Amino acid sequence: MEDRKIRIALDRHWAASDADDFEAEHDIYREDAVLDYPQSGERIRGRRNIQSSRAAQPNRKRFTVRRITGAGDLWVTEYVLSYDGRPSYTVSIMEFLDGKVSRETQYFGDPFKPGPSRAKWVERIP
Fold this sequence. Notes:
- This protein has a single domain (3-112), classed as Nuclear Transport Factor 2, Chain: A (Roll).
- The chain is built from three helices and six strands; from the N terminus they run H-H-E-E-H-E-E-E-E.
- By secondary structure, it is an alpha+beta fold.
- The chain has helices spanning 3-18, 22-25, 47-55, and strands spanning 29-37, 42-45, 61-71, 74-83, 86-97, 100-109.
- The chain is 23% helix and 44% strand.
- Strand 4 and strand 5 form a beta hairpin.
- It has a six-stranded mixed beta sheet, with helices on one face.
């Protein structure tokens, strides 16, 4: 699949994620897709299981994409995932096979206070 088509699919995916449109959100995945959460040690196999696990989350989720980059079969999205207003800085690494996501790995980082030892070199980012 050419890069432009994958980018369009990713834009649709993240917009559907933000809108709680679970069917459209998961259209990007192959039926046998695998989703890994390394920080919790979880692996979810299968598009329907991935979709069901996300639909079962009780929190109100919001997605703000900061950057999407990639080419060919490997794409990375940096975004802020807010659960009930609490942000988590997130990276999604998606591997494509035949135009659909075959594997995704997601990493989550909670915000932390700036370190005073580096204050004179730092500028604040939004």
